[in-house]
Structure formats: structure tokens, C-alpha cells
Specification:
318 residues, alpha/beta, D-Maltodextrin-Binding Protein, domain 2, 2 domains, five-stranded mixed beta sheet, 14 helices, 12 strands, 40% helix, 17% strand
Amino acid sequence: MWKRPLAVPAVAIAAVLAVSGCGGSSGESGDDRKLSVGLVPVADVAPIFIGISKGFFKKEGLEIETRFAAGGAAIVPSVMGGDFQIGYSNNVSLIVGHARGLPLRAVAPGYKVGTTDGSDPCRVIAAKTSDVRRPSDLQGKSIALNTLAAIGEVTVRASLAKQGVDLNTIKFTEIPFSDMNAALANKRVDAVWNCEPFVTQAVAAGHRSIMSSMVGTQPGLQITSYFTKNSYAEKNKATVERFTRALAAATAYAREHPDEARTEIARFAEIPNTVIGDMTLPTWTETMDPGSFRLLGELSHRYGLIKKPADVNDLVSK
């Protein structure tokens, strides 16, 4: 079994745990109406912006402030510290934080992958000048991820293992999504694991899509969730319920009105309209899938992100 060092230093985990153990951090009044929501600047989060522009959150009496971060691994500490009341994360980052003692709770689903490679908004991309043309060619290569020890690493490892690739030969490095296409062009890495809208930009520049790692891990896998910390959820039950109702309505609207979703993505991600029309939209869902959390927990343990098998039952809101 492949082993890796834990990606987050123990001192950082201790600091976050100390914050989570303190009482009465900001935003725990019991009836919050203004929420700061931590997001990743990718197509996944379009329903939040639909919910704002179409008034779904306003209808529930909520004012939403959005702020971007590099990934779920960066958002988790900000939620625990009270900078964000709600965060958006890949489910692996939630599982890793939960396994290390952080009192996290996933309150609403983000998106799931479909059943075909073409339905996956995140893909492994190789430079057009590279000799990488199929998954097996990635053996011995370097692959950029937006954050280590998260959904990208777990699903890339799981998919490459199915292809018979020796995982010990792969070198992973961190590069923000928005800088990955430049990294390919400059030959900083052999391949990147990137997400829309940047995948469409990469393909338009002539780079090659090599693998859909999340579909390759399991078709229909739930990839992301909106989450908070347990103390906030307990003290602000009505607020969390209002948020999840508004988000569900916005999610359904985004799924049923893809052109409007694309317009929102073009705006917040600053992507040209010429690109936005060709990109693969996520499969947004309003239904939590505990089975996806269990599988990702098993894989996180297999690849050394957590020390023992994960118990995800109290991580996922029923």
C-alpha cells in the first residue's frame, strides 16, 4: 500500500482544533442573516451566484457575501476560525479534516459526476508538446493539482491504479487552477488536473485531455459539498435550513437553465463568452450521497491521507 506524509503540519491542525474548541466565535448568534461563504473559483459554484442574482437567498431572508480561495483545504480552516460561516469543499478535504478531529458538517451537496468521461468537468490535461497521450503514459511524470491531499489527488491515484500505473513514480505538485494552463505551456509540469472553465481553455489552446479521473473512480460520485462547523449548525439551525432551501432552489434553476448558469460563470470567473459556450457543466444535485463519502473515505485511507478508516456518518447531514 502506498504511503504519504500527512499534508497539513501538526501545528496547523492543533491551531485549528484550538479555535474549534473555543466558545462563541463570530457568527454564532443563533439567527444569522448575513453569511460569508468561502468558494473555489470554478464552474461548480454557479448555483450560489444564481441564488444571489435570482433572489433565492433574499427570499429566505439571507444576504450572501462570497469570497474565493484556492481549494477546500484552504477553506476548511477559515470556516473553523469563523471567517466563513459556510464553505465549499471537495469531499476529501472534509473527510481529512473530520478524521483529524475537526467538527465539520456537510449540509448540502455541490455536484456529482455523470457516467461518461465527457460529463466530468475536471480532467487530467497534458501539454500539446508532451509525449503523454494516454493514462499509462503518466507513469514517472509530474502532475499539478490545485491542492494536495484532496479530491484531485485521490481520484487521479484511483484512476491511474486501475490503469496499472505505478503510483510511486508520480510526482504531485500544487498550482492554482488559474495558473495551470500557463504551467503546461511553460513545461513546469507534464500534466495538470484542472476543472472548468479552465479545461475548455486548455483544449482550445491545443492541450490534450488524457483522463477523467472522477468518472474513472466511480461514475455518479458526489464530489463536493457545502459545509459548516458543528457548533454553528447547532446554534443556527434555522439559518442553515434557509441556506440549504435557497441553494436547492438555485441548484435546480441552474440545472434547468444552463445558459444562465454559463453567464454567471463567465462573470465571476472572468471567462470569455467564446470559451464559456463549449465548457462541460457540472451535474449539480440537491441530494446528498453518503455512499460517495464512504468510498472517498476508503480511498483517502488507502492512499495515506488519513491514518485510519474514516467514519463519515456524523459528517453528513441527514
